[in-house]
Write a structure and sequence with these properties.
It is a single chain. 60% of the residues lie in helices and 11% in strands. It has 257 residues and is an alpha+beta fold. It has three domains: 2-31; 34-115, no CATH class; 122-239 and 247-254, no CATH class. It has a four-stranded mixed sheet, with helices on both faces. Helix 6 links the parallel strand 3 and strand 4 (188-193). The longest helix has 35 residues, at 81-115. The termini are far apart. InterPro entries: DUF4191 (IPR025445). Pfam families: DUF4191. The chain crosses the membrane at residues 54-78, 84-105.
Length: 257
């Protein structure tokens, strides 16, 4: 009897913990705790504040492909009950995919617009990279809020600076020397983020990095990451500027996944 009571008590405790966990996630403001559909809904709410045309564009991108596919199906695919149902389902699927593609495109644009000009905004673009990339935002920062981010992946070891160009040049040069000393033969690529000549705008940064030639194997990336940890351990922790919030949970919607 005592064992049965203990088992019941344990079961009740586990159920209570599960309910508490569900309630915490339900009321959480951390995107990482949200389910996929809540991520999409919350992303839509934020995007629509900055993009008033979003609802109309999504509606049009749903209606037009749906109507085209359905019309083609009815004209060339037969008028039997099964064929009609099949073409209706196919048309709705095409419309939904088109609407989500437009949503992902506008969401990315609105996100970049929202954070553009804020200190540390380069982190937003780095979060759009695939899981093959490891990014460390704000590894160095000055009192004027000029910052340096770092990412490493198949296309190389990359330092991204954002701030006033004149102040960034010596900061990036110093960070490049430090990284070359521990990277051992791996070239360090330097990018200045911004809208001036020779700089890469925030909304183009992700695609710019992806277009760089592939130069590192998975084994080499792992090796360099281990050496970078030693470099980071020797430097004081950089104070992170108050800029973009973490989008770890919602970035899948931004990337159209």
């Amino acid at each position: 009897m005592a064992k049965s009571e203990r088992a019941k008590a344990l079961e009740a405790k586990q159920k209570a913990e599960l309910r508490a966990l569900k309630e915490r996630k339900k009321n959480s403001t951390d995107p990482a705790d949200w389910g996929r559909w809540r991520q999409v809904i919350e992303t839509y709410k934020v995007t629509s504040k900055y993009d008033k045309a979003l609802p109309w564009l999504m509606a049009g991108s749903f209606v037009v492909p749906t109507a085209v596919v359905l019309t083609l199906g009815l004209v060339f695919g037969g008028t039997g009950a099964f064929q009609i149902v099949m073409w209706v389902v196919l048309a709705l699927s095409f419309g939904f995919l088109a609407a989500m593609a437009v949503f992902a495109w506008r969401a990315r644009s609105a996100m970049y617009k929202r954070f553009e000009g804020q200190a540390g905004s380069g982190e937003v673009a780095l979060q759009m990279l695939s899981k093959k990339w490891t990014s460390d935002p704000v590894i160095a920062v000055t009192k004027n809020m000029d910052v340096v981010h770092r990412t490493i992946g198949p296309n190389g070891l990359i330092l991204i600076g954002e701030g006033e160009p004149g102040r960034l040049r010596p900061l990036l040069a110093s960070e490049k020397r430090k990284h070359e000393q521990v990277a051992y033969g791996v070239s360090v690529i330097v990018i200045q983020m911004g809208d001036k000549e020779g700089q890469v705008p925030l909304d183009k940064l992700t695609s710019h990095i992806k277009k760089l030639p592939k130069s590192l194997t998975d084994d080499k990336i792992t090796e360099v990451k281990q050496r970078l940890r030693a470099l980071d351990a020797m430097r004081p922790k950089a104070p992170i500027p108050k800029g973009p919030v973490s989008m770890k949970g919602a970035r899948s919607a931004m990337r159209g996944r």
